[in-house]
């Protein structure tokens, strides 16, 4: 299930357009991989709508109604899993054991250019995935509860010291939205 941030249209129209764009992008990538999914509005997130989902994806949900976050907490409590891009709602952080972080703009255009996975961190994913991100949410792993799977490299291949992908038992989070560059490797990463 892909959760579209329709609640953003109630005051953050620029973010609403981005939420639509990135929800559509994730859905198109899943379709290209032959993975079926349903699109659910964050205004209509219920236990019934999530009943058949094994995985819920938040493609760009910088704000989320409390009711939707509560339904996701129930979903996680029933053994469900989350895949989150860029913004992890504060209410979910203690449940998925991933800490929020500061919004971090790239100091130069190539600072966040490549996602570099640690050896064996996520079976099936390419070791490096190209993505020229202009900013990230600098989320952090919780010691003993979550871990960094991949870090950002700059355009010279040097580590930036910022996590790109973090995982816990019930959530994987990428610290930026899923862009459409390096689509072959992006799809392999998404599939993994």
Question: What is Rg?
Answer: 16 Å
Instruction: Tell me the distance between the termini.
Output: 17 Å
Low-confidence stretches: none
Query: Structural class of the secondary elements?
Result: alpha/beta
Largest sheet report: 7 strands, mixed
Count all strands and give the number.
13
Describe the overall structure.
The protein has five helices and 13 strands. It is α/β, with parallel strands linked by helices and 192 residues long. It has a seven-stranded mixed sheet. Strands 1-2 form a two-stranded parallel sheet. The chain starts with a strand and ends with a helix. The model has no long low-confidence stretch (mean pLDDT 95).
Task: Sum up the structure in keywords.
seven-stranded mixed beta sheet; 192 residues; alpha/beta; two-stranded parallel ribbon; globular
Q: Secondary-structure map with pairings?
A:
Blueprint: E1 2-4, H1 13-32, E2 39-41, H2 47-50, E3 55-58, H3 66-77, E4 81-85, H4 93-96, E5 98-99, E6 103-105, E7 112-117, E8 128-133, E9 135-137, E10 140-141, E11 146-153, E12 159-168, E13 171-174, H5 183-191
Parallel strand pairs: 1-2, 3-4, 4-13
Antiparallel strand pairs: 5-10, 6-9, 7-8, 7-11, 11-12, 12-13
């Amino acid at each position: 299930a892909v959760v579209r941030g329709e609640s953003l249209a109630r005051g953050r129209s620029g973010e609403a357009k981005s939420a639509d764009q990135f929800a559509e992008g994730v859905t198109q990538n899943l379709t290209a991989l032959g993975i079926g999914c349903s699109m659910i509005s964050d205004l209509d997130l219920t236990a019934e709508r999530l009943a058949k989902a094994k995985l819920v994806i938040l493609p760009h949900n910088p704000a989320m109604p409390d009711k939707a976050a509560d339904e996701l907490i129930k979903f996680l409590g029933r053994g469900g899993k989350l895949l989150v891009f860029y913004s992890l709602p504060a209410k979910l952080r203690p449940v998925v054991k991933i800490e929020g972080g500061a919004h971090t703009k790239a100091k130069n255009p190539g600072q966040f250019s490549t996602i570099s996975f640690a050896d064996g961190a996520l079976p099936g994913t390419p070791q490096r995935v190209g993505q020229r991100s202009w900013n990230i949410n600098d989320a952090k792993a919780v010691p003993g509860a979550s871990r960094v799977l991949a870090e950002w490299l700059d355009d010279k291949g040097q580590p930036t010291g910022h996590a790109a992908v973090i995982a816990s038992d019930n959530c994987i989070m990428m610290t930026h939205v899923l862009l459409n560059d390096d689509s072959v490797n992006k799809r392999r990463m998404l599939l993994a």
